[in-house]
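Forwarding the complex inputs:
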Amino acid sequence: MSHKIGHREKLRIIIFEADTPMGKFFDEAVIFVIVFSVFAVMLESVADIKDQFGEALFWLEWFFTIVFTLEYIIRIYCINKPFRYIFSFFGIVDLLAILPTYLSLILSGTHILVVVRILRVLRIFRILKLTKYIAEAQTLSTALVASQRKITIFLTSILVLVVILGSTMYVIEGAENGFTSIPHSMYWAVVTLTTVGYGDVSPQTNLGKALASVVMILGYGIIAVPTGIVSAEIAKSQQNINTSTRICPDCNEDGHDRDSQFCRHCGTELD
Amino acid sequence: MSHKIGHREKLRIIIFEADTPMGKFFDEAVIFVIVFSVFAVMLESVADIKDQFGEALFWLEWFFTIVFTLEYIIRIYCINKPFRYIFSFFGIVDLLAILPTYLSLILSGTHILVVVRILRVLRIFRILKLTKYIAEAQTLSTALVASQRKITIFLTSILVLVVILGSTMYVIEGAENGFTSIPHSMYWAVVTLTTVGYGDVSPQTNLGKALASVVMILGYGIIAVPTGIVSAEIAKSQQNINTSTRICPDCNEDGHDRDSQFCRHCGTELD
Amino acid sequence: MSHKIGHREKLRIIIFEADTPMGKFFDEAVIFVIVFSVFAVMLESVADIKDQFGEALFWLEWFFTIVFTLEYIIRIYCINKPFRYIFSFFGIVDLLAILPTYLSLILSGTHILVVVRILRVLRIFRILKLTKYIAEAQTLSTALVASQRKITIFLTSILVLVVILGSTMYVIEGAENGFTSIPHSMYWAVVTLTTVGYGDVSPQTNLGKALASVVMILGYGIIAVPTGIVSAEIAKSQQNINTSTRICPDCNEDGHDRDSQFCRHCGTELD
Amino acid sequence: MSHKIGHREKLRIIIFEADTPMGKFFDEAVIFVIVFSVFAVMLESVADIKDQFGEALFWLEWFFTIVFTLEYIIRIYCINKPFRYIFSFFGIVDLLAILPTYLSLILSGTHILVVVRILRVLRIFRILKLTKYIAEAQTLSTALVASQRKITIFLTSILVLVVILGSTMYVIEGAENGFTSIPHSMYWAVVTLTTVGYGDVSPQTNLGKALASVVMILGYGIIAVPTGIVSAEIAKSQQNINTSTRICPDCNEDGHDRDSQFCRHCGTELD
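Prediction (whole assembly, four chains):
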């Protein structure tokens, strides 16, 4: 409300929002640095490249870490409720983006830190939150949240099916055909039901092949269920957009159908 | 109707219903025990774990069996029509959950009993029946039941296709390329049509590869059909839930939203 | 209209229709014989079974052939326009069901006749045409016919994509990595785009793997298109059922929406 | 508007349009030549065929090149704005269809030119643009364009998921099980998430198999999202086509079917 905006406030608008030209430029720069730094982590994992460019990648990693550290400090400095930021999802992701490099000074660089370092790719979603994509992202996530319970039931049924199919195949095929244990047979059941089909475990007996065929056709049909759930939800959430935006002049009720002539809540005639 | 509820009735409400705190606690405990006991059966099938913890798993299995037996007896004791329960789907599943362990005393533990024992995982659905998920589960099963006939036609067509494709590939490729018999070629056709694609049998001749390509694109298109069927049904069953069947007492307009209080056509108050 | 129905007419009703008890029984008997005879052809192709039961299967095949021949002759005898039946789709399928066995008397039993013999499985659809499934089958085929053009465009696009991807991978990977020719690389492209993924040909170079990843994600997205087309058509063809069955009293126009109050063609008030 | 059409204009109508019988014949001839010439390029890549029919294919290629060159020159001659055509998408495709053969006179025939030559298959879409399929193609592309943003978000999420899953599996499985680097593990993640499943890289450790199972079920569920997006869009774009935007001049009712002649609400004649 105050027209005088302090230095800190200006910084906050650039860093946390995306409506000003400076804010947009900052976001684009951050995306560029994130993508570039994730590529560097990837390349470091390729033996040939590490042998040749290992040192360059090492210094590049430190450069990115320092840039991200500065950004992290500025974010804490300019936000009003720093602790809320620090313990938010993106606050933790921002911290995890810089921590591994510092830790590698103390600990001898363990392998697992690679995964932590690569989590910085999640920071991309923060930018997404600020842009024109937000409405679309909301439609999608609304649809997914609305389908949550149906999907829970669906997943529970899939898991129960996988347990039963896995143990049946374990008994039919047995260890000599690669179905060495129930958990391993369940792995086969998932590979087959989802139509991935690596072929590292596959039925050898006739009975096993017959059951596997049934499982595949089942899996083929089952995929219709989540698709149907999500399709219906997306269609519905879009339909809500098709609902008229008129508001009752008397009671402010919204959500009227386009062909409604009277308020569905208080009966006042609509425009 | 009577305010005095007997001991048996109280027990029945705890065990068969889920509205009271005790009932909810009982359900959660049962789910916990089921999941734990299914895990035990799985682990027993892993050779390494059985060698090391075989005895512990043996006693654990007896512990679960006794718990489930007690539950089974109490269920029979407190229900009004015990025979109806015993011969119901869940009654049989409950019995199958305990029978194998007792049978293993008489018979030397055969392999097949593992599958029977693991069927106790189906008991999870009983709990599902009692909870807030019931409306969602009904929407799903209504949609599936409504699609039943369409899916029957679809499956019949798939089977006919599999028979024809299987025998054609058997003639084209022959036993020397792994298509040893029509049933085995049908197994290949299912693996390919459902896009699983293990790769344990795959066409070797040029003609076979050309036909296989057509089959794959067919399979790719065919998956659209069950998905379309289920999507349309779910969308319809949701629409029915969202629209009330009330009719305006004045102008007979229907299609009102469930939370509408006044007719959208003439403004008359709805019941 | 005439109450006196001749012997031939009675036979026709039993054989070609399914409304009388005798007609239903006949259809069920035919389905049973078809399924049984298809099973016999399948089993004959299994080397072990042919060695053991070869003679029994030989006589069984002759038994089925004579039964189908009798049925074919009766069909021609009792129908009004026999030539129209003989050259219809099902007339040809009926003939193909019996021809191979007779041909095997003259020719030494060639391999290809197996496929012709198994085509008798198509006769199942004739029965389907007569039953309660007909409405559902029509909804499905209406939806598929309505999507025909969209599916043609879709398939053309897929084929063009397969040609371009196949030749690109042929150049990138080359014969030494299994991509021996453009047609063979196109086979790989189909296997990958449709998410079948046998693994008999798979990219070995880094560039090839990168392109393959793009192809897979493309294929994953592309499957949405036919599914979307068919879903939308099924939903629409079901909606048409939701259209009111009222007919304008004045001009006989049908297809009015359920909430229409006046004929959309001539303006007459509807009931 | 002028009734006298010059020679050039007549040619233009035949070549660039498809409403006249000559125009249709020209289009069909062009499609025939394109398909035939693409087949020739494919066959040339098969070693056996090149050995036997190499020379014939060489002269065939020159024949097609000269035909396409003539067509290209006539197109430039008869169109009003030749430069606009030359630098349009189809102009460039037309040029690329003839360039490689001429280049092979100067350069020793490099491998990569094969891909350029096969791009002529894209010319098929030009014909598609002119036919009755155009309305259907527009419905499809409208739906895809409308889903563009949602699909961008979806693809970004998939890529982030692939990066995280790939590096996690790289740490869990390591180079000794085929997960030699993060990019290679990402290739595995794409192969698995899209349910292609070649099986050239597959998890060997128990932890890896467990994570892979989760990834597969995820991928299985994720496919529901693009399908849902596209289904909803196609359904919407079809609805828009089926409903006219006319409003009743008397009562302002909208939502009339395209073939309605009278208002469905008050019976007034529509325009």
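The mean pLDDT of chain D is 81.
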